[in-house]
Amino acid sequence: MMKLHNTFTDRLEEFKPIEENKVKMYVCGPTVYDNAHLGHARCYITWDVLYRYLKFKGYDVTYCRNVTDVDDKILKKSEAENKTPQEVSTYWYKAFTNSMSSLNNLKPDIEPFATKTLGEMIAMVKDLIAKGYAYESNGDVYFRVKKFKSYGMLSKQPIDKLESGARVEIGEQKEDPLDFALWKKDEKFGYKSPWGVGRPGWHIECSAMNRKFLGKTIDIHAGGADLIFPHHENEIAQSECANDCKFVNYWLHNGFVTINKEKMSKSLGNFLTIDKILETYDANTIRLFILTNHYRMPVEFSDEALLSAQAGAKRLINAKRAEIPANFDITVTDEYKQFTEAMDDDLNTSKALAVLFELVNKANKDEKDAYAKLVTLGQVLGFNFAKIELTEDELKEKINTINNILNTNASSMEEIIEMRNNARKEKNWEISDKIRNALDANGIVLKDSKDGTSWELKN
Q1: Residue 308: exposure state from Cβ atoms within 10 A (0-12, 13-18, ≥19)
Q2: Which of the residue ranges 70-74, 217-221, 335-339 would you say has the lowest mean pLDDT?
């Protein structure tokens, strides 16, 4: 029995999908105007693992993650760089996609763009106006917050507390400071609508996409904890008023990545991009760093934590390999039970990782099917067990570099390994160590066994 922590009720609840064996899952995607950072990695790795695990348990999952390609930040960047908003969003969407692929995240089943869903957004705004939940004001359209009696229940904020912090921005003509924009007048970058040329508010995008691609009520809506208010709060208000039914059954939120106890964000200027981190650490390391912590807890970034994760990732990937039987069935093993018990407990990835590391120990002792179990369960957490391969030219370049260090003329790795083995037979440990160190400096690991010595690239 799988249990998930529902932010709306603030309780651990048994997961029961609307339709038996089918899961409709939505995750708020990126606003594409800049590089994705470690905070994004934390969010999308977390929900990638949930997606993988639900599929592993046999659910038919439809995972939808939107792309916000019309937004104030995109427009600001387009003007600063003298580009069209589409040029900016297209460039940064490709960069985001590459970053997600580099982290070994699976692509969502559906990835809708805001600019391709404008008709659905306009239709939902019209529904809200017709029902009295929204009103037009000089080309803008606003949602009447106080008309939705459940407003504030997700974020646990009473209306009177929200009122004290509400304000009206310059140019806004609201009935109430709490009301939020569904449609914004924008004659320069906007689109035609019944209220004039404009563009959608951020919140209406996700409501309209959910309704179009997943339906009026969905199983899981996930995202970072920073989206609880106002974004997800506003989504609930819009969707439930427009559709006359419950919007989401399980609200899930991941914690922040912090640096010096502060949330990592672009606005604070303390963010590290995914691409920059990948110059030093591989995807398995970043994934282990994130999954070592429970998804709802904050993660404190430090080089020490990443170095520790790097050592752990190497242990996983460098486990002694063995052939995986074609008829291997993980579900009949004790490890499957331990792993699923951990993951069923609100995605306790820390306990699930402990199962993997125990399997590493067993694989290194040649225990039957231990490596098969490790790979099968490790892939559920998104680890990549593929060996890195070199092209012929890259291998020649490494051999030349090693030859220069050792002052030799070996033409293959086999000759270099033979030189080391001869040195060891002669108990010339100085030469033996020098060869191993030269290989290590070039990212090559030697593995000695009763069958001889082999080599592979460091992960």
Answers
A1: middle
A2: 70-74
Q: Which residues of 59-69 are buried (b: 16+ CB within 10 A; e: fewer)?
A: bebbbbbbbbb
Give the whole-angstrom CA distance, residue 291 versus residue 305: 12
Q: Which fold has domain 16-259?
A: Rossmann fold (3.40.50)
Angstrom distance (rounded) from CA 81 to CA 85 = 10
Q: Quick: pLDDT tens for 146-189.
A: 999 999 999 999 888 887 767 767 677 999 999 999 999 999 99
Handedness of CA 295, 25, 30, 169 (dihedral sign): negative
State the pLDDT confidence band at 329, using cuts at 50, 70 and 90.
Answer: very high
End-to-end CA distance of the chain: 36
CA distance 36 to 89: 13
Cα–Cα distances (Å) from 39 to 30, 169, 223, 290, in that order, read 11, 29, 11, 10
The full set of domain ranges for the chain reads 16-259, 327-380, 392-457
Sheet of 262-263, strand order: 262-263, 257-259, 299-300
> What is the value of pTM for the model shown?
0.86
- Number of residues that this document lists for the chain: 459
Q: What's the rounded mean pLDDT across residues 256-282?
A: 79
Chain center to CA of 146: 35
331: tokens are 């579900």
Nearest to 100 by CA among 205, 26, 30: 30
Q: Are strands 299-300 and 257-259 parallel, antiparallel or unpaired?
A: parallel
- Residues forming beta bridges with residue 263, ordered by sequence position: 258
Q: Helix, strand, or coil here: 123?
A: helix
The answer to whether the CB of 364 falls within 8 A of the CB of 372 is: no
